[in-house]
Amino acid sequence: MRYLLSISSVLCAVLFPSPGWTASLDVPVTRQGAAGDKSITSRILTQIELKQAGDEALIKITGDGPLSYRVLSLGSDRVIVDLINTSTKLQRGFDFNHRIVRQIRIGQHPNLLRLVIDLNQPATYSIQEGNKDLSVSLAPKPSTRAGEIALPSQGTNSTEVKRSEAAKVSAASGSALVASGDRPLPAIDADRTNSEPIPHEGRRRAADRHFVDQPTTQPKTETYVAAFGGVSFSQSFTNVHGAGTNSSVNVSDLALARTGIGGLKAGFSPSYAKWMAIETEVFYASPHFKQQSVTVTGSGGSATGDFAGSHTRVATWALNWIVRYPGEWIQPYAGAGFGLFWGRLADSGGTSSSDVSPGLNALAGIRAKIGQHLIFFTEYKYNRTSFDFSAADFHVTYQAHYVVGGLGFQF
């Protein structure tokens, strides 16, 4: 009986359309199947943008490829766009100071992503397809009726394009039906996420009425800059031996004093791979030689004596590849990259020597978001490289371990 009433409502709406809400539906669309159809390529929603086009509001919905979709209206105050087999990392909602569009809400459902466009006034809509986007045009209208639905027409493949006419259905009960070639399909509750039960009638759901202030365009990539500082807890020169005419001379490992470290970093995480980031950083430390006992071994034997110490400076530029857990507020991470190290030695007698060498920069840490833009992080760093100090006639392997903390700004 319920299906007979639904079919009767469809026929009545088609044969005796009432004035009010109308949607421009005669547009080229591509339909590859219904929600849950595994033949539809999974897509990612990357951007939502609102523009003014004369008296109309133009909402541009952009993905990483052609989008399969369906459109329906509920009452006179909202339009719903379902993106089939689509997901996103965008925020839950966008507020707009616009005379037609009040806000756009985003909800992830099984096999589809639902965009609810809440209106400030009744409007008609039309759809325009692009290569990787959909444009929803909204024009003011004095009165509306609920229940018109735009469905993409059935095609044989993703490149075939057909024109479709959507069936008009009655919405006297307040629910919308999607008309297909076989039978009407009930639309998914616009205000319910896939993890929540259907709310009781009259129940207010505050969580669905909370929206985040956002700019009208969500960045495609996350970019950030940060400053950091910390201390070393273990540094040394190992594999110390002579160079040139002194190549047969070996020196015991040389311990370096604890030192502070300071630096800057900048990086980005692409929207299609939030689990990774690419960053560059520069930092500086001055791990001076400690006063210590040193053993020197050569062709004539070995000798041990006291070494008064020396001033050492190390500056590093690194390019890192980061793997991280893409949590909303807490993000553990680890990474490694290429480093270019500059080292300089200077003794009390005025003799100095410097070298630039490639090496390893490895790191691991955890970062936390503080509000929408600020980030705090703490991090362990490991450096390894080799220096040839020609003026001092010896070669060393440099290793350093640091613990740092920093504050950054995320765009």
**CATH topology description of the largest domain:** Immunoglobulin-like
Total domain count = 2
Tell me the strand order in the biggest sheet.
16-19-20-23-24-25-26-27
What sort of overall outline do the alpha carbons produce when their principal axes are compared? rod-shaped
| Low-pLDDT residue spans | 1-33, 144-219
Biggest β-sheet strands, sense, barrel: 8 strands, antiparallel, barrel
What are the secondary-structure elements, in order, as H or E?
HEEEEEEEEEEEEEEEEEEEEEEEEEEE
Beta-strand level of the residues, as a percent range?
Answer: over 45%
Helix content: under 10%
Determine and state the CATH class of the largest domain. Mainly Beta
Distance between the termini: 55 Å
Annotation, overall tally of beta strands: 27
C-alpha Rg, in Å?
Answer: 32 Å
Instruction: Decide which structural class fits the backbone.
Output: mainly beta
Could you report the average pLDDT, rounded to the nearest whole number?
75
The CATH level-2 architecture of the largest domain is identified as Sandwich
Secondary structure tally, helices: 1
Describe this structure in words.
With 411 residues, the protein is mostly beta strands. It folds into 2 domains: 2-209, Immunoglobulin-like; 221-410, Beta Barrel (Porin). 3% of the residues lie in helices and 55% in strands. It contains 1 helix and 27 strands. It has one helix spanning 2-15; strands at residues 28-29, 43-53, 56-63, 69-74, 78-84, 86-88, 93-95, 101-109, 112-119, 123-129, 133-140, 149-150, 162-163, 177-178, 185-186, 221-242, 250-251, 254-255, 260-270, 276-285, 292-298, 301-307, 311-324, 330-346, 352-370, 374-389, 394-410. The strands form 5 sheets. An 8-stranded antiparallel barrel has the order 16-19-20-23-24-25-26-27. Strand 10 (123-129) and strand 11 (133-140) form a beta hairpin. It is rod-shaped, with a radius of gyration of 32 Å. The chain starts with a helix and ends with a strand.
